[in-house]
Amino acid sequence: MLFFSDRGVDPYFAQLQELSGECFDCTEVSPADIRFVDIDRRKRVIAHSAAIKREFRDLALPLETWLLGYVSVREDLRGKGLGRKAVEEILKAFTKKEEWAILLNCSLKNAPFYEKFRFERIANKASYIRDGKFVIDEDPVLMMYKSKSDITVGHRDTIHFGEDF
Ligand SMILES: CC(C)(COP(=O)(O)OP(=O)(O)OC[C@H]1O[C@@H](n2cnc3c(N)ncnc32)[C@H](O)[C@@H]1OP(=O)(O)O)[C@@H](O)C(=O)NCCC(=O)NCCS
Fold first, then answer.
1. What is d(CA 138, CA 119) in angstroms, rounded to the nearest whole number?
2. Full-prediction pTM beyond 0.90?
């Protein structure tokens, strides 16, 4: 089940909050431009992923840039391909686009999961504005992109993500 611009998410919102709480210790579920919600036959939310359009001024890329987040699978159902599906369903929305870059910030432990989709590490840390404060997350930043021109994105120490997702 793929929701664009959050249309249709309402009946599942409480379950999405619960999944976020289980996976990220935070029950917030921010609005998104593209959202994938996987539901089983019993109408339980089993996986979630979301992307928003976001400008990354540090990179100054001549591409539409996006932030991928909330990639999460119920703990008891991990290791069965649902995480892969959650990422691939979001990526499907990009297949028709000519040029784009998708960034994410994940734990060191999860970086190999994203590398399976050809995301590459481009920075060691991400900075955010969180609750009005400037904070640094000491977690890698990964990026995947499609471009008609040659683009070189060197490795950086920190990339600013702006407001948290
Ligand atoms: C990360 C997460 C989404 C993976 O979901 P999952 O359903 O277990 O993953 P899948 O079963 O689809 O695995 C897909 C592939 O990635 C691999 N993989 C899964 N988690 C991995 C990890 N942490 N590190 C390296 N590889 C990983 C699997 O072995 C599998 O490889 P294969 O296709 O070559 O067999 C899930 O563990 C999760 O929800 N974690 C908590 C929330 C979280 O940390 N999300 C990431 C936020 S940045």
1. 18
2. yes
Residue 37 near residue 1 (C-beta atoms within 8 A): yes
Q: Where do the domains of the chain lie?
A: 2-163
pLDDT number for residue 3:
76
Q: What is the pLDDT of residues 3-45, one digit of tens each?
A: 777 878 889 999 999 999 999 989 989 999 999 999 999 999 9
86's enclosing H/E stretch is helix 82-92
Tokens of 116: 């399976």
CA 38 – ligand 1 centroid, Å: 15
Instruction: Give me the residues of the chain with pLDDT under 70, please.
Output: none
* Residues in the ligand 1 pocket, defined by CB under 6 Å: 23, 71-73, 78-84, 106, 109-110, 112-113, 116
User: Separation of 72 CA from ligand 1 center, angstroms?
Assistant: 9
Q: Are 72 and 49 in contact (CB under 8 A)?
A: yes
Topology of domain 2-163, CATH? Aminopeptidase (3.40.630)
Question: What is the length of the chain?
Answer: 165
